[in-house]
Recover the amino acids of this structure.
């Protein structure tokens, strides 16, 4: 077994993540992933059942985001730091799954961190608008204030590209910034990379969620 294949198994990248739980590793119903340069089989990703898809969407749809702008920026900044800390591991997997040389793979991994950092900066900007209503003879002297809010639903991010770590990063970055629940689906070349990319986001979000729970607990204890 190659070093990359062992890395995939050791870190359970051959499993899906539904509701924080890793499922489907080692099942027969799976997609085989090959190195396009050497044709080596480096691993598999499970095919979700209809019940698992419904479960994932039900969990995402039921989620009620309450994170502040600061919390969301902190999640993206921490995810960017985790990508930088594991840059070599990510680059090796990119090289094995996408067939890129290590130099280009390191660059691609760095771009993921950059996208997350830029997203963290954008989250802190107030994107609301103010409109004057007295611009016509019929208008009145009042103003309209707007703000963004998550859609009442779930966005599906499907990435059939060779670099889901990058395209998925852009989608997850914007959706996490606006607290929009979404499902990430990667297939073909880069399916395992899609699973790997979700890990720093999940770890960062869990840390923020735990901090939020501790904060609410402390407020209750002070009353």
């Amino acid at each position: 077994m190659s070093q990359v294949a062992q890395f995939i198994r050791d870190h359970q990248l051959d499993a899906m993540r539904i509701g924080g739980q890793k499922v489907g590793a080692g099942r027969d119903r799976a997609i085989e992933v090959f190195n396009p340069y050497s044709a080596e089989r480096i691993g598999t990703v499970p095919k979700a059942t209809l019940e698992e898809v419904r479960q994932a969407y039900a969990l995402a749809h039921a989620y009620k985001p309450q994170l502040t702008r600061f919390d969301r920026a902190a999640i993206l900044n921490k995810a960017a730091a985790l990508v930088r800390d594991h840059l070599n591991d990510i680059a090796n997997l990119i090289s094995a799954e996408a067939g890129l040389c290590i130099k280009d793979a390191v660059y691609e991994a760095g771009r993921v961190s950059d996208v997350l950092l830029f997203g963290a900066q954008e989250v802190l900007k107030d994107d609301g608008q103010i409109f004057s209503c007295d611009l016509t003879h019929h208008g009145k002297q009042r103003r309209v204030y707007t703000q963004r809010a998550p859609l009442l639903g779930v966005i599906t991010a499907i990435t059939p590209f060779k670099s889901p770590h990058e395209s998925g990063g852009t989608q997850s970055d914007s959706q996490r910034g606006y607290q929009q629940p979404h499902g990430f689906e990667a297939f073909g070349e880069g399916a395992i990379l899609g699973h790997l990319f979700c890990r720093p986001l999940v770890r960062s979000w869990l840390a923020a969620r735990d901090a939020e729970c501790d904060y609410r607990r402390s407020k209750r204890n002070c009353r």
Observations:
- Residues 167-177, 208-223 have pLDDT under 50 and may be disordered.
- The domain at 3-124+155-222 is CATH 3.40.605.10 (Aldehyde Dehydrogenase; Chain A, domain 1).
